[in-house]
Design goal:
alpha+beta, about 25% helix, Elongation Factor Tu (Ef-tu), domain 3, six-stranded antiparallel beta barrel, four-stranded antiparallel β-sheet
């Protein structure tokens, strides 16, 4: 009987112990943590930009005629001086031949008139002809010389029209859609171009930043400031260029200043008219303390986060945020490098609560995403 009583008492003690242990385990809040780090962090100004070609040329005809040949396809890359279109050259060749013939005729007449004037100049000295006769011959020779000069200009103009019958690319770039095809009548200086060429190697990205950043931009602009762009805020693949232009005035309507970045664009990643997410990098802070941005919370008393103590409890820690850098927040005060901060589960926490670490947050590969 005594043995049975002892066994029952021991069972009760074990049951109470297990019950308390289970209760203590149930009171722990599951969280995910990350370590505050000290690392190099770029100071970047975010913006939204638009890609635009370095040059845009509307190719137009300088003479009227029938389009006989198109030497490229829509969307082709062309080089400066490459033949793009050919207009029927026969009318222009005929006009050039006619102008040359008129020049030859008038040149012969001018030479004859010049000889007559010289002969009359000798005769008037001997009183064989009157001064009036000599002056008439001299005027005729001078008039024919003027005709020769006019004929020479006509020959040059006809040669230019014949040259214009072959239309060449004024710049290297990417062609757009064709607006006229072979067989169509092309009119000189028609407001509708034959094709538009955009120079996209390199290419520019136009963007605007608030005027309060202007002093910092001017301070660091002596360096080649990197500009990073991506098609969207969620895209982690960035194309890198350099700041190439700062406008000479602030837009008083928007309070912003216009900037442009230049990109080699060898892989055609950027396209004219495309909207882009832009980051202008001014400098790099070598030893900044950073935490994942999801660890930082905002309350009535300001910004704070939860730090995991060595005894497995969490404490609410006020912090001073300097700025954000991609997936990270730069902390000016409140946290030291190496401390564990809660990145998930903090909504269930109060200062002093026991926590159970369920996992460690995966660190981003780069500040602000991959480049």
């Amino acid at each position: 009987m005594k043995l049975i009583t002892c066994v029952a008492a021991l069972s009760l003690v074990l049951a109470l112990g297990c019950s308390r242990k289970g209760a203590a385990g149930a009171n722990r809040v599951p969280v995910t943590v990350a370590h505050a780090e000290q690392r190099a962090v770029p100071f970047e100004i975010p913006a939204t930009g638009t890609a635009e070609p370095v040059q845009t040329v509307s190719v137009q005809a300088q003479v009227t005629g029938v389009l006989t040949h198109v030497t490229f396809h829509e969307g082709d890359d062309v080089t400066a001086g490459q033949v793009l279109f050919e207009i029927d050259p026969r009318p222009f060749q005929a006009a050039l031949d006619q102008a040359k013939a008129m020049l030859a005729r008038d040149l012969a007449q001018a030479q004859a008139a010049q000889l007559d004037a010289q002969r009359y100049g000798q005769l008037v000295k001997q009183d064989y002809v009157t001064q009036s006769d000599y002056e008439t011959k001299r005027a005729a020779a001078d008039g024919l010389q003027a005709t020769v000069r006019a004929d020479s200009a006509a020959v040059a103009n006809a040669a230019l029209n014949l040259e214009w019958a072959t239309i060449r690319a004024p710049i290297a770039g990417r062609t757009g859609r064709l607006l006229l095809r072979e067989g169509n009548l092309v009119r000189a200086n028609n407001p509708d171009p034959l094709v538009i060429i955009n120079q996209i190697h390199p290419i520019l990205v136009r963007f605007a930043v608030p005027e309060q950043h202007l002093a910092s931009i001017q301070r660091y602009h002596r360096n080649r400031l990197p500009v990073l762009v991506s098609p969207s805020k969620t895209d982690t693949v960035f194309t890198e260029g350099v700041l190439s232009f700062v406008d000479n005035n602030v837009d008083t309507t928007t309070g912003t200043v216009l900037l442009k970045g230049e990109f080699p664009n060898r892989d055609n990643a950027l396209w004219p008219g495309e909207f882009l997410t832009v980051r202008l990098q001014l400098y790099v802070e070598d030893s900044a303390v950073v935490v994942p941005s999801q660890a930082v919370m905002t309350g009535q008393q300001g910004t704070y986060l939860f730090v995991v103590n060595q005894d497995g409890t969490a404490r609410s820690q006020p912090v001073t945020v300097d700025r954000t850098a991609g997936a990270y927040t730069v902390i000016a005060q409140g946290v030291r490098a190496g401390e564990e901060v809660v990145t998930d589960g903090q909504l269930r926490l109060v200062s002093g609560a026991a926590v159970e670490v369920k996992g460690v947050a995966e660190a981003a590969r780069e500040l602000g995403g991959d480049k």
